[in-house]
Design goal:
There is one protein chain. The chain has 137 residues and is an alpha+beta fold. A hairpin with a 5-residue loop joins strand 2 and strand 3. Helix 1 crosses helix 3 and helix 2 crosses helix 3. It has a 3-stranded antiparallel β-sheet with strand order 1-3-2. The protein is built from 5 helices and 6 strands. The structure holds zinc ion (2 copies). One zinc ion binds next to loops.
Length: 137
């Protein structure tokens, strides 16, 4: 198996799917095209691509890395630490924040994938209810 064709397949999968994919999910999609490929070949290729700056690696708080194409639309997320729900933040809000930071600190923010951890509305409600009922988790 030539590694270049594995690389090409990875980039194709990431280009087609604009969301975040785990190494396992990428492997499963590539396997349809290249049935003989083994997972460790895909994982190593992903590491090389990330190192070369062609794909980005993020920790979305679930304890594993997710990969996506570099150079796509900038986007930022809110990730619920309780249920792992991912919400994309309105680009304008983040743009204003980065603008303000730029003006105040003369600092050009290059982060193109900001992830803020917290608690989604449903989990906040759940937590409140548990507080009221005095239930220990
Ligand atoms: Zn993302
Ligand atoms: Zn939640």
């Amino acid at each position: 198996m030539r590694s270049s064709s594995v690389n090409q397949n990875i980039l194709k999968v990431l280009t087609q799917d604009q969301s975040h994919l785990t190494a396992q999910q990428i492997y499963e999609q590539i396997r349809d095209n290249l049935p003989a490929v083994n997972p460790s070949t895909v994982y190593r290729a992903l590491e090389r691509l990330a190192h070369a700056g062609q794909v980005s690696v993020s920790d979305m708080g679930q304890g594993y890395a997710v990969y996506e194409m570099v150079g796509g639309e900038q986007h930022h997320h809110l990730v619920c630490q309780d249920c792992a729900r991912v919400t994309t933040i309105d680009e304008k809000i983040v743009h204003n924040l980065f603008d303000n930071i730029g003006q105040k600190y003369d600092f050009q923010v290059c982060t193109n994938h900001l992830i803020l951890f917290g608690r989604c509305p449903e989990c906040q409600k759940m937590a409140e209810r548990q507080m009221e009922e005095g239930v220990d988790r």
